[in-house]
Design goal:
Elements: H1 21-24, H2 33-40, H3 43-50, H4 57-67, E1 69-71, E2 86-88, E3 91-93, E4 97-99, H5 113-123, E5 128-129, H6 137-143, E6 148-151, H7 157-169, E7 174-178, H8 188-192, H9 221-228, E8 233-236, H10 241-249, E9 254-257, H11 271-282, E10 287-291, H12 297-305, E11 310-313, H13 315-346, E12 360-362
Parallel strand pairs: 4-11, 5-6, 6-7, 7-8, 8-9, 9-10, 10-11
Antiparallel strand pairs: 1-12, 2-3
Length: 368
């Protein structure tokens, strides 16, 4: 039997079986998932998921930024109850971790975005569905009500409007508009290795139509988007105070501090380094989230201490999906959540409201 058949989802595209729940239970860190997923992904898929812009400096630096920050433990605090629950745009989530948009997830597992949506629902959080999903907007909306929809704005506004209206009709909670990729991105790895797309897998929401990202958008373009949708608007890809202030002036509801996971501009500022400036410029007038380089619960805590309301996991979710489908994502994120709760307790932050800047410092700058 063809191991790629959806009738046998326990096997990956490479014929290696996905990990069972029992096997997943024997994994204890996020770092263990990537090599296990790699075994189950075709070389071109792994290159696509793990890829970066140019030299890869931005992707590498995103991770290194977390190493430059340390946490400051507190003692003799009543931590008998540690509660990581919070809200995003008024929507409750069980802990401050969302799933970042990633396209073509059926290259990792036959269930693709449906597995990710089910995992998000089980974990009590939100996924952001990619425009390039292999599963329809409606199918994901039925499985994970209140998900966010990531919007690539095309030159054909009719198609853009169609996507937005479908997301609103399907009960999505927000539009996450990607604004950091208005031109062709310089990805040397992808240029060397063409992604192999098996028959039956496509960008179903756009019908694999030859579409072009709009490169002429301005802040005034948001007026048109508001005219066709009542959904909150979150801009994904803001890293400067200047753009944050413009977002506030233009009535944006939230920002995702993001450099496209290092896949857009080589040598861009890291998201953790950009975060404090964005938070200061926002001054509480919109919600600020962050992605890029987040791997562990302690990373989540550092980002929140620097002002993020929540973080988004990108590649890590793909490694969980590629290693064990829905159960793989759940196990991976449970590990992140468990470490976050432990770290919150050890720093005396028993709720997300008590996660403040005084529990984090740059390495070498801790007061004696």
């Amino acid at each position: 039997m063809d191991p790629r058949s959806e009738a046998t989802p326990q096997y990956s595209w490479t014929g290696v079986p996905y990990l069972t729940r029992e096997e997943l239970a024997r994994l204890y860190s996020v770092e263990e998932f990537e090599p296990l997923a790699k075994e189950r992904l075709t070389p071109s898929t792994y290159s696509f998921y793990a890829g970066w812009a140019g030299s890869g400096a931005t992707a590498k630096a995103n991770r290194e930024a977390f190493w430059r920050h340390v946490l400051l433990p507190r003692v003799l605090v009543d931590v008998s109850v540690v509660d990581p629950r919070t809200t995003v745009l008024g929507q409750p989530i069980d802990f401050p971790v969302l799933f970042a948009p990633s396209g073509y997830q059926r290259l990792a597992h036959p269930d693709g975005e449906l597995a990710t949506a089910r995992a998000a629902t089980r974990l009590g959080t939100k996924m952001v569905l990619s425009t390039s999903s292999n599963v329809t907007i409606e199918e994901v909306g039925a499985v994970a009500p209140g998900s966010w929809f990531q919007l690539y704005w095309f030159t054909d506004r009719g198609i853009t409007r169609e996507l937005v209206e479908r997301a609103e009709a399907a009960g999505y909670g927000a539009l996450a508009v990607t604004v950091d990729a208005p031109v062709s991105l310089w990805r040397e790895g992808e240029a060397r290795t063409t992604v192999e797309i098996p028959a039956g897998i496509s960008s179903v929401n756009t019908g694999d139509r030859p579409l072009k990202i709009a490169s002429n958008l301005t802040w005034q373009s948001l007026d048109w988007l508001r005219s066709v949708s009542r959904l909150p608007i979150v801009l994904k890809g803001v890293v400067t105070a200047e753009d944050t202030k413009l977002a506030v002036e233009n009535g944006v509801d939230g920002l995702i501090v993001s450099n496209h996971g290092g896949r857009a501009l080589d040598w861009a500022i890291t998201t953790l380094d950009a975060l404090p400036e964005v938070v200061e410029a926002a001054d509480g007038r919109l919600e600020v989230y962050m992605d890029g380089g987040v791997r562990r619960g302690t990373d989540v805590l550092k980002a929140m201490a620097l002002g993020a309301r929540a973080v988004l996991l990108g590649r890590s979710v793909l490694w969980g999906l590629g290693a064990g489908g829905e159960d793989g994502i759940v196990r991976l994120v449970e590990l992140v959540r468990g470490e976050l709760v432990s770290a919150m307790g050890l720093t005396g932050a028993t709720t997300v409201e008590r996660i403040t800047r005084d529990i984090v410092a740059r390495r070498g700058e801790v007061a004696a």
